[in-house]
Every structure is written in C-alpha cells, then in structure tokens.
Specification:
This protein is elongated. The termini are far apart. Among the domains are: 1-60, no CATH class; 141-223, no CATH class. The chain has helices at 27-41, 44-60, 62-77, 79-94, 96-109, 111-121, 146-155, 194-199, 204-223, and strands at residues 172-176, 189-193. It contains 9 helices and 2 strands. A two-stranded antiparallel sheet has the order 1-2. By secondary structure, the protein is mainly alpha-helical.
Amino acid sequence: MSLCLCGCGSETNPGKKYIGIHWAKCEKYRRNQKTIMKRLCNEEEYKNKVSKQVQENWDHNEGRKLEMSKRLKEKWKSKKERKKQSQMMLRVWENEAHRNKQSEGMSKSGVSEKISLGGAKRRGLNNGAWNGGTGCAPYSSIWGDSEFKESIKERDNFECKHSDCWGKSKILVLHHINYIKEDCNPDNLITLCNSCNMRVNVNREYWTEYFSDILKKNMILKTG
C-alpha cells in the first residue's frame, strides 16, 4: 500500500498513485493545466472556435435556456436562498486577503481603468440620453437648479404633503400637480415623499384636484 500523491494522506489501491480523481488536486497537474490554457488562449483560432461553439449551443438550445431561467427564478424567490447567498458573499468580502487579491487582479488587467474611462465617455453630452441638461423627460431648465427645488421643499416645511402618507420613505421629491413636466411654476409643484409620488401616478385627474386644493389651503394659511 502507498499513500495518495495528492497529499491527502489516504492509502491507494495496489499499483495506483492516486485515489479516484485525486490526481486533479496535484499541484503539478494544476500547473500543467494553466500552461495549456494560457497557450490555447493565445491562439486566435482556438478562441474563435470555442466562442462559436458556445454561442451555437446557447442559440439552439431554447429548452435549456427556459429551464435555467425558470430554475433560477424559483431559486431566487426563496428568502432562505437569498439570505444564504448574501451571507456567503459577505463572508467572502470580509476576507481582506480576498479583497486585496481581487483589487490587484483588476489593477493588473486594467479593468478598473476601463470602467472609469467607459463611465466618463458616457457622461454629459456623451450620454445618449442627454437632453440639454434637463434629463430624459422634458423638464424646463430651472428643474436642474437645486436651490429652486430646496425653496419649494422649504415652503412645504420639508414634509410630504400627502395627507395619507404611509411614512415608507424619507426621501422628498417635487411632484408636478398637473403632471406636465415642463410646467415648473411653484404653484404647480408640491413636496411628496418618494413613496407617495409613485402612488399618485394613477387616477391623475383626482390627484391634480386633490393637491391643488392642498396647496391653496396652505397658501391661505401662510398669508393669513
């Protein structure tokens, strides 16, 4: 009897150097595999062949794609599974050695620089959604003035003006009472929390009248 050459300490069968597939654990094997893969990855023909094969397999196997999609959706619906994945990733990220290794790898590969440059190329005028500094929706130019927005929130005492606010969000936003984005007249703006702002996106005629009345009452109270 001899010991498995992988270093596990177990005895092998007569005439065998490894137990089962323990040969895959051997450092020499791993080094050889890395050498082979590096050599293959440098061969354009090999890379193109593998890429084409993977793409063809993926394109032709619709049943497989549907099966994988369904399985992943069902798995992710499980709170237990989501919690398990979250805890696992947290444990991995708390490992300083792992973080340093990841950071070093990205630095050497130039990925971080590419991400940074890619983001810079899509900012401002270079962004496909750029609309003269007003965002995607047709807001007026004053909408980009943070002081103007703060003045409206100050007028509304920095609180959500929905009388039935559920208190689900602390983020305050400005709501266009008549739902016309271009109309940024202070009389058409009212402060809502982010949650209420989403709730009032239906039955618009009702909410237009509702918030108009609230704003009028508030103005009457302030002017005496």
